[in-house]
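Practice problem: predict the structure.
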Amino acid sequence: MKLDEVKISGAIIKRFSDKLMDSLDCDVAVVGGGPAGLVAAYYLAKAGKKTVLFERKLSVGGGMWGGGMMFNEIVLQEEGKEIADVFDIKTEEFTDGYFCADSVESVSAVCAETIRAGAKIFNLISAEDVMMYGEKVTGLVINWTAVGLGNLHVDPLTVRAKYVIDATGHQAEVASFVERKSGCRLLTPTGGVIGEKPMDADAGEKMTVENTKEAFPGLYVAGMSCNAAFGAPRMGPVFGGMLMSGKKAAGLILEKLK
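Answer:
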């Protein structure tokens, strides 16, 4: 068979367009493809909910790819290992209660299983705003990441979602949109994004899970967005809390979607 370049281009355009069209109205839109966002999308899609994830960068995985300071190993505690086992990630006990995993395998496994569960992942697309009806987040305003990087004046598109998960990491960007642009108060002690505190791995891991909750009607926070929104410590390259946060966020939303 002789390859036809135009047919190749047409296949990409048609398939992508169909996928995006089908994703414009969904149950849950996840912003951020780090470990918390991916795990949340996995559990939601596995439960049969129409789930779409938008990642601004070329690759998903957030900070997990680089492990600690580009040493591509991550650490999990026992509770985090239990979720890693769901994705068949190979772990090895380093010492009592500390388990190591290859970061590249970890990201690859979680990403593959999330897609196989039925979630749709769009990379190189950023959320630049939220849609709100009254005082409830009802969707996202999206654009190509390159538009923002190029400072181009290009109008965005929109995605309607019953619930949105902010898994954007240290900046809690989606929660910040709500605070900055709506004039409404978040469900945090100060009514706004408090910002993360200095490193405290033990407290940070626990509070990541504790702070995984609704930050505003229709908007949940997961992963480091939790600690940024609610003012808790960072924890570095131990990733159990990220995985558990994603699973908890999915569970909370599934309860609402019943």
